[in-house]
Design goal:
By secondary structure, the protein is α/β, with parallel strands linked by helices. Helices cover about 40% and strands about 20% of the residues. The protein has one domain: Alpha/Beta hydrolase fold, catalytic domain (Rossmann fold, 3-Layer(aba) Sandwich), CATH 3.40.50. The N and C termini lie far apart (about 65 Å).
């Protein structure tokens, strides 16, 4: 009898070890690689379908586009899982654009997310317009050709340098997306140059959720005053957008630059897609 229990324990132990070596995969997700034809760079694109997608074969879905894909995809997939599956948030396709293959993440994001050339940086800068073209011409085309998204809203979610990129797209081609979630934007880049960017008037209504951590200030260890930058950006949007832009600004209590994004993402998406907004 003792020998029998011994072997049962051994089987359970080896099963636990085997399961520990299995990588976790986000359900209903896939990865494709898309090439920017203007630069020959290749970008991994992470795609997650909502739970009802395959059953509701006639339904179309909004798309949430994420920058900093390898990080943001895990965060946004996790924080939206329960709200979307339980019906308190509209179900949407999540598409996360990662960094170009063969380059370090920092080099890719500094190059692709900064709108202006800054020769003081060792890394390449100023290719935001090119990256916006890639998203518009290549990523949008792939998604519309392969998934049921026709006529549905598109949201751009960007944080830090990605927040700077999102603000740049909002100002220069506002109706490329129907809504924007801008987290802790790097307004400081090249001496606050984004604050001098001309705003192209939106032709149709655009919702903008802008948030920053309350502790994103030098006195709490940050190199730049992200709070002041976000407040100045909010003021610019309010004063110069004239019409069609609905802005909500949020200061996130007790959040630093490293911790603000998950709260920004879920609160912004709840504001845009939560069941209260559907009533």
């Amino acid at each position: 009898m003792l020998s029998r229990y011994f072997w049962v324990l051994m089987v359970l132990a080896f099963s636990a070890i085997a399961n520990a070596n299995v990588e976790f995969k986000i359900p209903r997700s896939t990865v494709v690689e898309l090439q920017d034809k203007n630069t020959d760079r290749t970008y991994p694109i992470f795609i997650k379908l909502p739970k009802s997608y395959r059953a509701n074969t006639t339904a179309s879905y909004p798309v949430i586009y994420l920058l900093d894909g390898s990080y943001a995809f895990q965060v946004v997939s996790g924080v939206t899982r329960f709200p979307m599956n339980s019906g308190v948030m509209e179900q949407a396709i999540i598409v996360a654009i990662s960094y170009s293959k063969g380059s370090k993440g920092a080099a890719s994001r500094v190059r692709d997310y900064t709108p202006y050339l800054d020769e003081d940086w060792k890394l390449e800068t100023g290719k935001a317009a090119h990256h916006a073209d890639f998203i518009n011409d290549t990523v949008f085309t792939y998604i519309s050709n392969n998934y049921r998204v026709e006529g549905m809203p598109k949201t751009l979610v960007g944080n830090s340098l990605g927040g700077l990129f999102s603000a740049y797209v909002l100002f220069t081609r506002p109706n490329m997306f129907s809504s924007y979630i801008i987290g802790s934007p790097s307004v400081w880049f090249r001496d606050n140059a984004i604050l001098s960017e001309a705003i192209v008037p939106a032709k149709t209504p655009v919702n903008v959720y802008l948030a920053v951590g309350a502790l994103e200030r030098p006195e709490y260890g940050e190199r730049e005053d992200m709070v002041e930058g976000a407040q100045q950006l909010a003021q610019k949007i309010t004063q110069q957008s004239k019409r069609h832009i609905n802005l909500k600004f949020k200061l996130i209590d007790e959040a630093t630059h490293a911790t603000a994004f998950p709260t920004t993402a879920i609160q912004g998406l709840d504001w845009l897609y939560g069941s209260r907004q559907q009533q």
